[in-house]
Amino acid sequence: MKNLEVLEELWAVINERAEHPSPDSYVSSILTHRKGIDKPLEKVGEEATEFILAVKNGENDRTIEEGADLLFHFFLALRAAEIDIEDVLGELAARRK
Ligand SMILES: N=c1c2ncn([C@@H]3O[C@H](COP(=O)(O)OP(=O)(O)OP(=O)(O)O)[C@@H](O)[C@H]3O)c2ncn1[C@@H]1O[C@H](COP(=O)(O)O)[C@@H](O)[C@H]1O
């Protein structure tokens, strides 16, 4: 998969923004939101719903966009929950048959 490094870069930038919040950053705005962990969790819920609707409606371009939104906000929620993506990947690796 040639674009897998995008996920690695995204995780790195999310951690960078978490450690050094910036006023113009969307990532920082979510991670420092007054609702706390509820904000990224709310976004995961919204994006999951949008993804499901796009799939059910057979809208391929929208499914790709919503899939990207979902993955991105899932990463934000993991960071907000102080879970390392490495541990999630480790869990998947341990499930290999
Ligand atoms: N991958 C993304 C990405 N995907 C989506 N978004 C933003 O996510 C936001 C939410 O999308 P919605 O469709 O829910 O829009 P909305 O209803 O206006 O959002 P809300 O007001 O409900 O939060 C939009 O503003 C998008 O711009 C992203 N923002 C940032 N990134 C990555 O994160 C990096 C750091 O971004 P900054 O923190 O902004 O510098 C970027 O370089 C990108 O790689």
> Approximately what portion of the residues adopt beta-strand conformation?
under 5%
CATH topology: Helix Hairpins
Class per helix and strand makeup: mainly alpha
Low-confidence stretches: none
Quaternary assembly: single chain
**The CATH H-level homologous superfamily:** MazG-like
Any idea what the shape is?
globular
Corresponding CATH architecture:
Orthogonal Bundle
Q: What is the N-to-C succession of helices and strands?
A: HHHHH
Number of domains: 1
Distance between the termini: 20 Å
Q: How many β-strand runs?
A: 0
Bound molecules: phosphoribosyl ATP
Can you give the helix content as a percent range? over 70%
* Integer average pLDDT: 97
Look at the structure and give the CATH class: Mainly Alpha
Helix segment tally: 5
Main sheet properties: none
Radius of gyration: 14 Å
Pfam family, one: PRA-PH
GO molecular function: ATP binding; phosphoribosyl-ATP diphosphatase activity
GO cellular component, one term: cytoplasm
Family: Belongs to the PRA-PH family.
Please tell me about this protein's structure:
It comes from Methanofollis formosanus. It holds the Pfam family PRA-PH. GO terms for molecular function: ATP binding; phosphoribosyl-ATP diphosphatase activity. Its EC number is 3.6.1.31. This is Phosphoribosyl-ATP pyrophosphatase. It is a single chain. With 97 residues, this protein is mostly helical. It has one domain: Helix Hairpins (Orthogonal Bundle). Helices cover 73% and strands 0% of the residues. The protein is built from 5 helices and no strands. The chain has helices spanning 5-19, 26-31, 38-56, 60-80, 85-94. The chain starts with a helix and ends with a helix. The relative contact order is 0.13. The model has no long low-confidence stretch (mean pLDDT 97). Phosphoribosyl ATP binds at residues 10, 13, 17, 25-28, 69, 72. Residues 10, 13, 17, 25-28, 69, 72 line the site of phosphoribosyl ATP.
